[in-house]
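FAQ: What does a ligand-bound record look like?

Like this one, built around zinc ion:
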Amino acid sequence: MSGRLTNAAGNEGAGGAVGNRTGGHAFACPLCGLARRPGLFEAARGGPYRVCAACGSASGPGTLDYARHYADYFPDLVAEDSPLLAERYHAILQRAERLTAGIRGTRTPSLLEVGCGNGQLLAVARERGWRVAGVELSAAQADHCRARGLEVVCGDLLGDDLFEDRRFDAAVMLEVFEHLPNPRPTLRALASRLQPGGVVYLTTPNFSALARRLLGARWSVLHEEHVTLATAEGLRRSLRDCRLATIEIGSRNVNLAELAHGFGRRAPMAGSQRAAAAADARDRIEASAALRVLKAILNVLLRASNLGETLVAWGRNG
Ligand SMILES: [Zn+2]
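The answer part, i.e. the structure of the complex:
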């Protein structure tokens, strides 16, 4: 059966059925760094994932040519700015402003975003008075950012040693972590570009999510681009290893449309289908006061239980 999670001893792991496959020899977990015999998690796409026996994070086989794949990412499609995202970005930046007030004094705050996509977050930050810079692997997206007057370099923070002598008050990495086969060196490079006391904010899918536990191999987040799927514990250990003190790690979001789709035992949702279903659900929730209350309650529960689909983390340098 696919989607089952077994550990080296063949015992049941989080959310999986008992089975007898193991992940073979010990491997060093890219998140917590510990070397143990991993469990194995089969997936409809992107697997099999090796599951760390220490922190529970999952690593895919990594069959993509990383640099080439992302250089051509969205070659002719640069996303439009979204009002909903603008609202979320304002909230992130407001918190970053509070968290860095003590180290900035009257200095203009500075922000680095890794994987800045169409540049919307950087543009929102600039509106709020931040000095901003971004890194983006996709040439089309980087060009788009520069056309809107943003300082964005097309490259890889790690490989190209960008912004080496600059120090930022805050750094943001949204939904990038899961694309990195070995995220800790990138996180370390990011930390080294922060001011002492500077903060980092990142989001990434949660391998411990309720949806992954319920949908197993058919969870739409599992695919070949997502080579590193963290748990809260894996993320906590990664931050610590990169000399980032955890301010907060939590989880949020549940994609009810996907759960309903999955319970019909249908094939996993494609990324575009998943996004459309999530947008549809968002519209319905926004239109109903009762659903908004339900969503707020659900988010509190998800945050407390770490079962939400997205992990969110704030860390502080030094
Ligand atoms: Zn681990």
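Follow-up question: can I read anything off the structure? Yes, for example: The first helix runs from residue 66 to 71.
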